[in-house]
Amino acid sequence: MRAAVRGWVLTGVAALLPLVAACSGTPAGRPEGGTAQPGAATATDLAERGKYLVEGVGGCNDCHTPMKMGPNGPEPDMSVALSGHPAGLQMPPAPPASGPWVWHGSATNTAYAGPWGVSYAINLTPDESTGIGTWTEQVFVNALKTGRHMGIGRPIMPPMPWQAYSRMTDEDLRAMYAYLRTVPAKTNKVPEAVVAEPPAAPAQAAPTPGAPAAPPAQ
Fold this sequence. Notes:
This protein has 218 residues and is of the alpha+beta class. Helix content is 31%, strand content 9%. It has helices at 2-24, 42-57, 61-64, 137-146, 162-165, 170-180; strands at 67-70, 73-76, 104-105, 111-114, 117-120, 194-195. The strands form two sheets. Strands 3-4-5-6 form a four-stranded antiparallel sheet, with no helix packed on it. The longest helix is centred in the N-terminal third of the chain and has 23 residues, at 2-24.
C-alpha cells in the first residue's frame, strides 16, 4: 500500500512540473522557438513618454503649432502641428517697445520681438529640408542643454524656455526626440531669427574737477 501511495505522489509531481516551469518563466515555459527580446518595446515606450512630455509637460504645441481662431478663441491648428511659424506669414516690423510693453507676439503665437531681436518658433517636424529631420538625437539634446541652435549655433532666443528644458534628464530629452521623429513631417521653412545688437555700454560720467582720480583697474 505504501509503495502504491508513493507511486501516485511521484506521478502527480511529474505531471505538475511542466505547469510550474511555465509559471516560473523557465525555458520550459517559453513558446517553442521563442527567445526573450530585450528592448523590443523600448523605442515605442520611449516615444510614448516623449509624447507625454512634448504635448503635456513641455507644452511644445503652445508655440510651435500656429494658433488659429476657433469658436472659443485662439486654438492650435493641429493640421500643421509643430511646424513652427508659417512660411507664408511675413511679419511687418515690430512696433517699438513702449512703457511696460517690452515685447510683442504674433496672433499665431509663433513670432516674437523684444530686446533680443526677432525670434520665430522653428519647425519641429522630421522634415529633412525645413524641420529637424537631419538632427541627430545628440544634436537635439545638446541644443536644449546649451541653449544654442543645434548645440553650436546662435543663442536660442526668448520666449523659448530652454533653461527649464536644460534641467531635464538626457533620457527625457531623448524621449522627446523619439516622439518628434514620429509626427507627420511638414514642409515649412521658418524665417531665420534676427539677433539684436548687444546694448552699448553706458557712457562714463566726466570726472568732477578737483576730485581724486579713480584707482587703476587691477
